[in-house]
Prior knowledge:
The complex is a heterodimer.
Chain A (H helix, E strand, L loop, with lengths): L4 H11 L6 E2 L4 E2 L3 E3 L5 H10 L7 E9 L7 E9 L4 E9 L5 E3 L8 H12 L2 E3 L43 H4 L12
Parallel strand pairs in A: 3-6, 7-8
Antiparallel strand pairs in A: 1-3, 4-5, 5-6
Chain B lengths: L1 E4 L11 E7 L2 E8 L7 H5 L8 H5 L6 H16 L5 H30 L2 H22 L8 E2 L2 E2 L7 H23 L3 H7 L7 H6 L5 H4 L7 H4 L20 H29 L17 H6 L1 H12 L7 E9 L2 E9 L7 E5 L1 H7 L1 H5 L4 H11 L3 H5 L1
Antiparallel strand pairs in B: 1-2, 2-3, 4-5, 6-7, 7-8
Helix pairs in contact in B: 3-4, 4-5, 4-11, 4-16, 5-6, 6-11, 11-16
Amino acid sequence: MSLAPERVEARLRERFPGVVFERQRGEAVRDFTLFVPAEHLVEVCTFLRDDPELAFAMLSWVGGVDHLPRVPRFECVYSLLSLEHVARVTLKVRVPEEQPRVPSVVGVWPTANWHERETYDFYGITFTGHPDLTRILLPEDWVGWPLRKDSPLGYEEVAFTHNTPGRMQPSPALRKLAPKKVRYRAQ
Amino acid sequence: MTLNMGPQHPSTHGVLRVALELDGESVIACKPVIGYLHTGMEKQAEYKTYTQSIPQTDRMDYLAPMSNNLALCLSAEKLLDVTLPERVQAIRVLLTELTRISAHCVWLGTHAIDIGALTVFWYCFREREKVLSIYDMVCGARMTASYFRVGGLAMDIPAGFLDRCEKFVDEMPAHIDEYESLLTKNPIWIARTRDVATILAADAVAWGVTGPSLRGSGVDWDLRKKEPYSGYETYDFEVPLGSRGDAYDRFQVRVAEMRQSTRIAKQAIGRVRAMGETGEYRLRDFKYVLPPREEVKTSMEALIHHFKIVAHGFFPPVGEAYVPIESPKGELGFYFVSDGTSRPWRMKVRSPSFVNLQALPVMVQGRLVADVIAAIGSIDIVLGEIDR
Lengths: 187, 388
């Protein structure tokens, strides 16, 4: 029996009357998406996982989004999956630029570990309470947060005559690489 | 003792480093270290149109390019809110099931070679080669297919394609019997995989494991049945399940899945044939898909659409979409955030290998070093997809 997303929202409002849940609306928001205040994230997630009527036992993925001119700038997206009731719910947490901090949900779903590290790696969002918040995909000495919108795409410049002085003249180092004379046995 | 397995170790299926803390031969702690193949595909996608990202997806899980194409296209199509013709859906199902067979062939061959059974590898790669020539026939590339487009297919299937697929699908069950005759009752194989790298159902769910690795633990979760896409609900097939959650169960689940895939592919071939060997291969909504080449030469309207689509791409409405599919490795999905322009504001890839690999320490804790090899093989990872 499939679980209606509206039922999830109603159940959450019933359990957390003091918390403001905001349904994301938009022309093409195709999945049921709910904004959750960061300070209530962990308890909401624990409830979603443990309530038998909801049973969101699996966290499918966590990701970040940078809406640069917008304030608050970042969003943290959690895609939850209920195997028992065949339902998906997307939770979102707004994250301000000055203090990009979100409580970690590793205690609720251990799978959040790598997803949160990836989000930290890409956006510099810190997950408080994470056991090992280090870079995961980028080298550990990397500077900057590559998926932020103000981070340039970056590439290696191709050497042309106009940007490489002395390009027309082979450098002395290259001259050393002249092909060796090969002596064959037959000669 | 701390031992580094990888990054250049043949049994790590790519560039994976596993840092092992050992006491003699038993594993005290295990930490997979990834990122050696990171090429920033998610960042690059923000600078490309949706269609331009399709060739990137071939390079993620390079053993299952068609599944990746499908996942991207389905998410973009959900964003656009379009429904595809049945013939297109049937061709997609046919090709993704062939992809599953070939991906499982590579998995079985390399998994067996890790454990020391060299022969299986040659048999599996022989069949995989046949699928690759089918790719070659349909789109001109053996591995980097990029055959699916948002709103349909790049081109129609060629003449004789269905016969060739049918021949392959008919032969395949006998080949699977061959693999099984080499492994299923082989005492060495059983000794190396039975009760090795066990993960219980509850742990697998908590660690987000999906695909055959989850079904090996006995959890009945197949997205083709539970959240059907591309018309999978109309096909007749079974979802094989394991019970113990060990490497041997995952082996049996995948082998049984290959048999089911031949069944689905057979049905899909029948449907495509019933709808015509040539016919509709994409939507006729030229705001999203290229108009046919012949029309571009004769119709002004088609020429304008052609120009607009090639120059800018299509413009989805402002919003978000995520469609998970059952790729050979597990739940694969692309999460798109659209800001109304022709380039995605954000493309997040939920790759199954990334999540499944995370469960490796759970599987090998307290086991022997040799079991780590069996465990890595049995999860079926592709580093291109993990590092993206």
